[in-house]
Amino acid sequence: MRRRPAPRSTGAVAVSALLLLATGCSGPLTLDAPTLTGADAAACRALVEALPDKVDGVARVEADTGGGYGAAWGDPAIELRCGVPVPKGFDAVSGCQTANGVDWYVPESQQTGRPEDIVMTSVGRTVNVEVRVPATYWPPVNTMVDLGAAVRKTLRSVQPCV
C-alpha cells in the first residue's frame, strides 16, 4: 500500500509551534536592582510608579527586579535600576549632562559621539538612578528627557552637578 505524503503545511505548523514555545518560555527580563529599605525604598517605589509607559518610543516590558526597584522598555531593553551607589569615576568636578531638569553622569570613556551602549546615572538626587541604554537608542538624550519628569517628581534634588 502506498503512503500519501504529509501536506506541506504540517511542517510549517510544527516549526511555528516550536518558535512559539521557544519565545514564550523566555519570561520577564531579569534586572539586578538593589534591595532597599526605609526612605530609599519609598523613594524608588514612588519613582517606579511614576515612570512612563514608553521611553524613546518603546513600550515598557515585564521585568523581574529580584525584590529591588527597576523597570525596562523595549528589546533590546533600556534598563533602569533605582537606588544604585554613586557611579565609579564620579566626583565633585565631574561633568554632567542635564536634560529635562535632571543631571546625568555618563563616564567620559562612553562619550564618543557615536552610537554605543552607555550607562548613565542620575546624580545630585536623594537616590541615584542608573539607566543602561543600548546603542539602538542613540542618542541617549531621548531616554534622559523621557525619564526626567518621573525623576524630578519623585527624587528631590540635593546637590546639582557643576
Describe it.
It comes from Nocardioides panacis. Keywords: Signal. Residues 1-27 form the signal peptide. It holds the Pfam family DUF3515. Helices cover 27% and strands 24% of the residues. The chain is an alpha+beta fold. The protein has an eight-stranded antiparallel sheet with strand order 2-3-5-6-10-9-8-7. Strands 1-4 form a two-stranded parallel ribbon. The chain has one domain (28-154). The longest helix is centred in the first third of the chain and has 17 residues, at 8-24. It is globular, with a radius of gyration of 21 Å.
Percent helix: 25-40%
Low-confidence stretches: 1-24
The termini sit apart by 86 Å
Q: Largest sheet, if any?
A: 8 strands, antiparallel
Summarize model confidence as the mean pLDDT.
86
Number of helices: 3
Structural class by sheet pairing and helices: alpha+beta
Strand content: 15-25%
The overall number of domains is 1
Topology as a string of helices (H) and strands (E): HEHEEEEEEEEEH
Shape: globular
Tell me how many strands there are.
10
What is the spatial order of strands in the main beta sheet? 2-3-5-6-10-9-8-7
Rg result: 21 Å
Protein name: DUF3515 domain-containing protein
Organism: Nocardioides panacis
Signal peptide: 1-27
Pfam family, one: DUF3515
